[in-house]
Amino acid sequence: MQVWRLIKDGFHEGYHNMAVDEAIATAVENSVSPPTLRLYSWKTETLSIGYSQRIDKEIDTSYCQRVGIDIVLRPTGGRAVLHDQEVTYSIASPKNNTLFPDSILETYRVISNALVRGLSLLKINATLNPKSQISRPTIMGAPKSPISRPSCFATTSQYEIIVHGKKLIGSAQRRFKMSFLQQGSIPLENYHDKLALCLGIKEKEKRERFVEILKRRSTALHELNGKIFSYDEVVNAIIKGFEDICKIKFDIAPLTAYELELSDKLYERKKVF
Fold first, then answer.
1. Mean pLDDT over the full length of the chain
2. Which of 166, 144, 154, 178 is nearest to 78 (CA)?
3. What is the dihedral sign for C-alpha 68, 48, 43, 166?
4. What is the pTM of this model?
5. Which of the residues 64, 152, 198, 246 is marked catalytic?
6. Which numeric CATH code is attached to 2-270?
7. What is the C-alpha separation between 172 and 104, in angstroms, rounded?
């Protein structure tokens, strides 16, 4: 049975959250920290973007500034996610960890199985998506089609988690030389209309279509089973899911001095405007 560090974190601003995740990933990469599961949430509304996204072409920064939505750069890839009422997880582990096959997809599968187990403890019948379902414009190559906007929850990739055919958890993984980092968003609520405005979809008809597409393709915990879950309920269920599936023993421990110092240095780099 492997022993992992567990960080049951609270609510923080987005720059802090992403700096801490990257600091942990760096520490694991350098073999100075053990495999780590961190669970946390967001103090203020934050739009996170993948490290290779083009903010100047894909994000309406003036709208975000006007309404007080921070924009933060994730250390992982993927598309834009609007964080508010949710539980977020991050996993940093050496690539040679015997729990995980040496591939992105198979690592996704193992982690997703643990998440599905955790959701089952909340009486949510989630499954793994068996194949990639990439969103495409109705007319191939149509400019500014709302469906082609860079939203994480508009697409469902293989082994991501679905409920009743709708995506529930959005995840992104980045692999380094000796380790990997995976981050995932488990929304309690959805804010599709506000996300559309963050992505610069100003025309009402296009925005309504974008929202309709997201409602058809994604869901949130509070839209399921008619129950409102607390943050702690979801966190504890996810922890138990990893214990059951991966046979992990968790040791609750804080960030190390190395990680705290590094996260302070990374903090400013996470601000994208």
1. 90
2. 154
3. positive
4. 0.91
5. 152
6. 3.30.930.10
7. 10
